[in-house]
TrEMBL record:
This is Fatty acid hydroxylase domain-containing protein. PANTHER family: STEROL DESATURASE. The keyword Chaperone does not apply. GO terms for molecular function: iron ion binding; oxidoreductase activity. Residues 132-265 form the Fatty acid hydroxylase domain. It comes from the Eukaryota. GO terms for cellular component: membrane. Belongs to the sterol desaturase family.
Amino acid sequence: MLPYQTLDEASDALGRNLTYAETLWFQYSARKSDYFLYCHTILLLFFVFSVVPLPLVFLELARLGGFERFKIQPKARLSSAQVFRCYKDVMRMFFFVVGPLQIVSYPSIRMIGIRTGFPLPSGWEIFAQLSVYFVVEDYSNYWIHRFLHNKWGYEKIHRVHHEYTAPIGFAAPYAHWAEVLILGIPSFLGPAMVPGHLITFWLWIALRQIEAIETHSGYDFPWSPTKYIPFYGGAEYHDYHHYVGGQSQNNFASVFTYCDYIYGTDKGYRYQKKLFQKVNHYYKLKGELKAGGQQNGGSHHISTQDLKSD
């Protein structure tokens, strides 16, 4: 709860007039406890899990011709009943694991110093902190993910997430309850190392989940703005990981691909990518690329299918 009764008190404390954003924040949060504000994280996650995947699910079910060439595994289709079952399972995990975890984690949020007061962070401060959060989460998630692909970790925990060999957006948080708890650690490390404002924390939670939904979407759109992010994995990259599945040591990246490259866990993917480029070049020379693309859903999809034939 903000320690000010009026906007004038807040302005006097800051020694300046409040910005428009700070005024809105004061009007909304001044009479609300920090715990109540933190519980908004539950509503945020519910919104992201439920709403963000909907356009991708619509494409999956509607099978619109103009978008079919962007589907990574064109032969793998889920029915509306299967999509609903996935969402239902995710919501069950949300209400029994994710939601309660957010409630009981409030003391740790207080301990590391996530604040709710003034001043609000600047755009550059938010950007810098989010950059740290993504890098820290990506590196720590990489090693936990690799551990979950050993015999015990996969059979006891991680195999649940890999039930979808051709993932959809709703399947991003679909996992064993233990995996949900374990992978919460990398997401918390960045804010613990560089604590910021609650608004920055909310942005981090939302962006990380949106990224996971995008990489599990099953579609690789050439116009996606994430393609301009250096070392970003993306949907096709992570889709390969789901396709080969099992205890395969390929493409563990959470967000970026540099760990896979450094530690050699993307060699199979890169090999198959180069192999297909040669195949594509051959068809182009033969004048058969167009016919091949029509049979396989487009040139992008030929590459994906060949990538997964390893």
